[in-house]
Structures are given as C-alpha cells and as structure tokens.
Design goal:
The complex is a heterodimer of chains A (395) and B (353). By secondary structure, chain A is of the alpha+beta class. Chain A is built from 11 helices and 8 strands. In chain A, the strands form 2 sheets. Chain A has a 4-stranded mixed β-sheet with strand order 1-4-5-8. In chain B, 51% of the residues lie in helices and 16% in strands. Chain B contains 11 helices and 10 strands. Chain B is globular, with a radius of gyration of 20 Å. Classes of the chains: A alpha+beta (395), B alpha+beta (353). Chains A and B meet through helix 7, helix 8 and helix 11 of A and strand 10, helix 8, helix 9 and helix 11 of B.
Chain lengths: 395, 353
Amino acid sequence: MDLSYGPEYDEFRARVRAFLESHADRAPAASISAAEDRPEIRQWQKTLIDHGYAARTVPREYGGFGADPDLLETIIIGEEFARAGISQGMENQGISMFVPTLLTYGDEEQKKRWIEPTIRGELIWCQGYSEPDAGSDLASLRTSAVLDGDQFVINGQKIWTSSAGEADMMFALVRTEADAPRHAGISYLCVDMKSPGLEVRPLKTMLGTSSFNEVFFEDVRTPRGNLIGKRGQGWEIGTTTLFHERNMLGGSRQTENMLRRCEAVLRDTGALAEPIYRDRLMRLRGRVLSMKYHGLRMLTDRLKSRSSGAAGLITKLNGCQLNHEVAALAIDALGEYGVLKRGSKYVREEGNWQNQYMFTLGLIIGGGTAQIQKNIISERGLGMPREPKPAPSRD
Amino acid sequence: MDFGLSEEQTLFRDALRGFLDEQFPVDSVRQLIAAERSQSTELLRKLGEQGVPGILIPGAQGGSELGLLDAVVAAEELGRAANPLSFHSSCVMAPLALRHAADSRAEDALKAIAAGEQRHSCVHAGVDLVDGRLAGSARFVPDAMEADAFVVLAAGDAGSTLHLVESDRAGLSREPLVTVDETRRVGELSFEDVEAEPLASLAVADTERLIDAGRIALAADAVGSAQRALDEAVAYSLDRKQFGRVIGSFQAVKHMCAEAVAELEPVRSLLWYAAFVWDERREDSSAVASLLKAHATEVATTVTTTCVQVFGGMGFTDECDVQLWFKRAGYDRQMLGSPTALRAQAAEFDAWL
C-alpha cells in the first residue's frame, strides 16, 4: 500500500505548480464553464497546449503536445489546477471523445484535417448516437446513410444531442448496411452541421433550459471520406468512446466537492447541530469516502493493466446516485427556502441545489441508465445471463 | 501509487481461502454449532500453523509481526468461511493489548496465542481496579466460556491497567449469552474481588486504538460475510429454475445482485484504507475506523438481506447456509458500537476529506 505518487512525480507536480503561479494573472478561473465558447478560454487553451496541459498526449504532428500517456501526470495536472482554481481549458465531446476515437480509428487525412482545430476549440463537435427509438437499446438505431456516388445520404433523427446548436460537426452512428445483423450494420460517420436538410430543434429539460437537442436529417449529404474506420465498424468504434464517457460521469472528486458544499449549507442553516442531520451527513460521508478510495483502487488496477472485475463497473451507478442524494440533503436543510428557484426573492445559494438535484437525476439516466448499468454489472461482473428476448411483437 | 493488497497479501488470502474451504468448510462449522461449541483445539492449532493468530504478534513471540492490513485480509476470509474464531478479540485486540506489557507472562501469552495453543479474549470495558483487586462485570465478551485466559483492561483514574486473568481464577465467574450468530459465542464475566497484578498501564488513546482495530476487524468480517452470501446467491440464481428459466436471467434478480456489488466493493476499498491509516497512525484513523464499521456493517446487513431473498423460501430455512452470514453480519453490526452510535462518534472529528 502506497498512497504517494513517488519522488519522480513530485518534480512534475512542482513544474505544474510553477506554471500555474507564473500564469495566475492571465488564467481564467475554473468556475467559468469549460463548455462555454469564449475568446479568453480559446486563448488559454492554446497556452495550455503549448505547455502540455491540454491535448497532452495528442501527437505533435496533429497539433498536440506529444507526451507519452501517463495516468498519474494527468491526475496531478487535474489536482493542481483544481487547487489553484484555474481553468483546465476547453472541455467538450470533440476533445474528450472524438479526438481519442480519431487517433485510434481515423485515417491520416482525417487526423490532419480535424484534430488540431478540435483541440484548439476552433471546431466544435456534437455526438449523434441516441434516437427516439434507440435509447438503452442503442444498437437498434435506424438513421440510415446510403452511399450515392462519393457521398452518403442520411435520413432519420437523433436525440439528446448536447451542444448541437453550437456545433460545427457531428460524429454519428448511422445504419449503412441495411441487410447486415444489427451491430454489424452500423457505421461511424461525420457530418457538417450546416449541411442542407439538417435541422436542430432545442429540447427543453426539466431544468427549464435547453441543454439537449433533437437533430433531424432529410437527405443530408456527407462526403464518403467522412466515414471513420470501415463500413460496419461503427458499433465497435462508438462503444469504445462510451466507456470513456461513463468513467467521466462518476468521478469522486466532484462528489467530494459537492459534499463539502452541502456540509457548509448544513452548518450555515444550523442543521448540523441536529443529530438527525449529522447522521445523514455521516452516512453520505461514509459512502463518499468509500468511493474516493475505491477510485484509488481502480487507478492502481489501471496502472498495473489489471482487470478490476465487477468492482470496475460500478463507478457511474454509485457516483451519480450519490451526487443526487447530496443535493437532496442540502435542499432538506434549507427547508422551505430549498424550493426557491434562481431569481426568486429569498433564494439561497442561487437555487443551485435544486438545479443540481435535477441535473444529477439527468446524469443517473444519461450516458447509460442506472438500469443498464445494473445489467452490465450483473452480466459482465457476475456472469449472470442476459434477459432472453421475448417473442417478437405483432406490429 | 499502489492502493490495495500487495502480492504477498493476495497470496496469503488465496492460501487461507483454500485452507479454510478444505479444512473447515461450512459443514464443519455446523457440527460445532450442533455440539454447542465454538472451541475446537484442532481448529485453533491448525489456524496457528497457517499463521492466522500471530499476524499482529512480534517475531520474538513466534508471530509474523505484520500490520492490521494483513489482519483484515485474514478477518475477511474467516467471515467468508463463517469460522468460529472470534478473531477481532482473540487475534487482534488481545495481542495488541498484551504488546503494551514488557513482562514475561505477557510474552508467554503472546507465544501461546501465536502458536494456536491458547485462546485469549479481550475485556475492554466493565471491569474496575479497586484497591488492587478487579471488580465488575463485562457482557458480550467473545469466547467467554471457551477462552483459556482474558486480557482485561481495568478502568483506573488515568486510563486503564492491563491484567492477564486465567479463566479459572478465584472470584471470576462466567455465563454464556445466546446470540443470533451461532458461529461465534459470547458470554458474561463477573469479577468479584479478583486478584490483580497490573502488567502495564494504557492511556485512553491506547485503549481507543485497540478498539478501533477491533472495529476494523469486525468490518472485515462483515465484508467477508456479505461477499460469501452474494457469491452463494449468484451461484444459486444460475442453478434454480422458475418459469422455464434460471432465476439469474431475470432482471429483478440481476439488479438486486448488481446493487449488492455496487454497495459492497467500495466498502472493501474503505476497509483497506482504514487498516492502512491505522497502521500508519494517521490522525484520521480513529474516525475512519468508526465510519467504516458503521458503513460496512450496514451494507453487510443490506447485502445479506438481499441474498436471503434471492434464495426465496429456502433462504428463510435453517438448512440454507445463507442465514449463517446474515446472522454473522448482524453480530458484526452490534458489537463494539452499532452504526448510528459510531457515526455520531465519527462526526466529532471535523478535519474530513
């Protein structure tokens, strides 16, 4: 058991700290939403890439910093930026999901064309996976792409598409092989969001904001060269990046921060003096601490390239549920004030806890519902069989 | 960064699991229950050969002088096997207490424990040192009827004094208490004008540290119990058929098992952390021990309850082994502080996270 990162990493940490200290005067704060497209964030992103704190492992020929992948270095960068309260630059699905996918599956021309503008924040991507009839059962997706000369012609609809309004491009899963078995008929295709026949309609969520969209395709044409990998390889390519997303969605540092803020609410409202609130807080603390050290256990497995078994499949399920329950406790402590929305007289904490309560409920569902997570845990982790398919329905 | 068990600890765990499965399977535990005994000279001796009781005992007394992290590896396996040894008391708290004494009698006792020759139980509360004699009564003492001797921490003005009291000493009377967990036994000790010779003095913090170690060991037992119940439940669900299918193919059953895994695995991570910070004497170790014990035993209660339900009606019978781990988790939950009390205690520590 060794919870230190070792002396070789102390030096690296010192370098990160020195960089942050020397740039503190011009660095945007971490509180600025990383998804926001603002000029100072773009400028900061360029500085970060030049110094190896963004696009760190993206090869130099594609505009990245070109460092060898090192999980602990990545973690130290995250820790030090968080400690300094400084933005880690742009964060979007193009950078976190599309670029790693392209590096693995893209051809040379595609990598040259797309990676550099994407990591610099000049090209914004959205993800087109889910459809109205293909949610948890993603492989049943029906949006079709038919080859016509040198172009694919796309018809169908995507849903739950974040940032579709701002995006320049979409990476999508589409059905190119109508006669192939479900998984084998899917391809991974990139589409220009300004293409004729493509329409984006915002979808208002229970938070009252439009963080999602529906995207409609009517004879939308995209060049054949926008196909990533081979025809029919889309399922393999798309699900590789989904795993990445699920790991992102349940990280424990965010939960620890939320619990700390929740504790401050309990202290400020006087609830902390009541044993019954203290007990609820301590219950959550026990679970949050468990997830914190579970994270270190999973990290160790990754560093040793060792499978974590069932223990490695639970992060998303637990993390999202915990965040939701932390928000619930803060709302309870606020009493009637807990129901107030941002903008109301008497509102506390800008109504953030109600937003968090709803937003985290969305995360319990998004990126693979809790129920799908439980299927994965029981099937891959415990070796329990899949639910047999029912007889086909008559319609 | 290397969070978790070392290669040696993993090998020790696998070897001990193999040994317990082969030498002391659940059937053998049931035979002891039927005979109303938890004492088996053979069991103690063989566990001694495996190095189980000597983990926390110095090499000079025949132990392996390892840490609490090694001890929790053993405790989890003993829980998994529903083993009758009251490990948290006889192999954790008693040896740790005796190590405070620089006295040949304490050294002899440690030697006898390490070798698996004698069973010592720890009495950490209920007894006072009055005018040089021991008086008072202690309830819920593990192995009260079976132990060869008791390591008694008698309350004094400043901290406590340590005494080694053999089970047949004049003035000591013993009576069994009957708990739901038939695999491990407890009882009540009454001390009436018992001859006392302090072997050491312990500060309050020393005694708390002993109790913390006992709590961590009980949490490990709870994790092992819950894990075994879950393994048995999953195996049963892949065998038992209803509606023409194995019940493990129904999502209702799969999701119960998935939730159990999702609760249990992070507890194991916290267990390792708690043992590690106890070994390292970090300032949060006592609060972590309390919080761990509260959380782990509650999760074990939930998980074993789920597992009983996977077995359906059979799970409710005496014949079905799953009830042994359900009850074992119940014992772990109540002993040395129940979850709500321990959370209240942990809440006093405010330098968290």
